[in-house]
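On clarity, I found the account of how folds are encoded harder to follow than it need be. Since the whole study asks how a given chain folds, the encoding of that fold should be made plain. For illustration, here is how one protein appears when written out as sequence plus structure tokens:

:::
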Amino acid sequence: MRLPARLPLLTALLFSLAACGCAAAMAEDSPAKSAPTAEPDLSGELPRVPPVEPADALATFEVQPGFRIEQVAAEPLVADPVAMSFDEDGRLYVVEMRGYSEQRDENLSRVWLLEDTDG
């Protein structure tokens, strides 16, 4: 007797749904659900990195032999950068997130196009 090709997939899906249903039912019966869980304090997990002035920032990088690093922008030209990308002409696009708002018309972020004009 030949089984439909989708039968193993359907069987796995049914078992997954059944397992989720059992886990949900167990969670509803659990007394821990009503008790609020305190979030652990993770503030000590990562070391705090002190700010560095733009003029001193390059000295904080380790660069492999044969490579170099150059500073192309710093505050106040850009603030709170979250992404950047170079295009085929060597121009740099920088995305700033100067704040966060749930208001649709409040435009706090912007994209800068930075171009080397003096070589």
